[in-house]
Amino acid sequence: MIGLKTAGIVVENPATLVSLGDFTKPDALLAAVAFLIIAVLSERRVFGAVLIGILSVTMIGMMMGIVQYNGFFSAPPSIAPTFLAMDITGALNVSMVSVILAFLFVNMFDTAGTLMGVAERANLVNKETGKIEGLSKALKADSISSVAGACVGCPPVTSYVESAAGVAAGARTGLSAIVVAVLFLAAIFLSPLAGMIPAYATAGALIYVAFVMMSSMQHVDWKDFTNGAPAAITALMMPLTFSIANGIALGFITYTVLKVATGKTKDVSISMYILSAVFIAKLVFIG
């Protein structure tokens, strides 16, 4: 949904909420081209299909005159104005509790949902226990990054579902993360070059990744409505609400209610009851 919206393939419509965009516009057309290039190359087992697709569409955009070259190198802006500029007293105000809890829920469950989806695609989920290998390390890295990011004044540093693009390209180990980190560091000084990549190029990659991740839905027991319905609600509400956390919350609540109402309480763990209650409280009091 995010990829389709970014590309202009799905647009706002007051009458029907959303509708099909205009494919005569470059953004929608080139996003579709990027998706097709990536899909075809991936099916043919071409290494780096996602990167090739993004760069190819960027070059096409340059030839069409809709992508401008704005330079190669630039010094990063100073972090002095925001470094450690924290209002601790203001954060301790009672009125800020709901805001802090909202950020906590979004960050925590967005991260959990992203890790679950990406790990499943990367075959990092233990088939016997259902646990994600190295989950504690990933959560520690995410939490430390969030705190460090806040100290320098940047938005929450967290896991993003776009990581699945790397998995689709073959990333599996910590070496991939190190390479990406080095490239991000270089991008700080090469921001004009990185900024040339148009949104519709990455939108095509996001659409491809979405289809790749949908393959995990085959493991859902669709014959059991109490399993299939919560899974479907989770998958649908994530894009429709533009929030992984909201999708997880509604999925957990639906799962617990259906299991209890149909007498299948043995399928519901204590932690599921607790999380469902927390999610209900979050939706009622925080939104």
TrEMBL record:
Membrane association type: Multi-pass membrane protein
Source organism of the structure: Vibrio maritimus
Subcellular location: Endomembrane system
Protein name (database record): Xanthine/uracil/thiamine/ascorbate permease family protein
Listed transmembrane segments: 23-41, 46-67, 79-106, 178-211, 231-258, 270-286
Source taxon at top rank: Bacteria
Residues making up the signal peptide according to the UniProt record: none
GO MF term set: adenine transmembrane transporter activity
Gene Ontology CC terms: endomembrane system; plasma membrane
Keywords of the record: Membrane, Transmembrane, Transmembrane helix, Transport
Family: Belongs to the nucleobase:cation symporter-2 (NCS2) (TC 2.A.40) family. Azg-like subfamily.
Predominant location category: membrane
Stretches assigned to coiled coil: none
